[in-house]
Amino acid sequence: MEPVIISIAFFSCIFGIVYLFFQTRNKERLALIEHDKDASLFKFSKDRSSPVWAVILLNLSLVLMGVGFGFLIGSLLESYSILEGDVVYAGSLFFTPGAFLLLGFYLTRKLKL
Fold first, then answer.
1. Taking a C-beta distance cutoff of 8 angstroms, is the pair 105, 55 a contact?
2. pLDDT in the model for residue 84
3. Which chain regions cross the lipid bilayer (predicted)?
4. What whole-number distance in Å separates Cα of residue 97 and Cα of residue 101?
């Protein structure tokens, strides 16, 4: 009985989110038309030099590299310092992917979007 309730709740939440997304998007476009504004911001330009998937792939790869580097740094700090293992691993696993994402931000600014 519980899996049925959980699955119904899950799919109703997904439906609610999708419904709100499309309803809000429609209201925004109607408001722009009503006030005689330009709705060109909703159109996607095809003349991009680098596609969106390249940015996503770059950031995903940098996060995974950051996690691996975090494990390496955590192992080195646990071996060669007086810090405890849990604190070292948690700190390095939060710090290094964040640093690599910051690097990814600067790298994606250099890409022409």
1. no
2. 78
3. 6-22, 52-75, 87-107
4. 6
Measure the CA–CA gap between 105 and 60, rounded to whole angstroms. Answer: 12
Q: Note the pLDDT tens digit of each residue in 35-51.
A: 877 766 666 666 555 67
Ramachandran class of 41: left when φ > 0, alpha when ψ lies in -120 to 50, beta otherwise:
alpha
Q: What pLDDT does 66 receive?
A: 92
CA atoms within 13 A on the CB side of 55: 14
Closest CA to 92 of 64, 63, 72: 72
Domain boundaries, the chain: 1-43, 44-113
The runs of H, that is alpha helices, within the chain are 2-34, 52-80, 85-110
| Among 34-48, 75-89, 97-111, the least confident range | 34-48
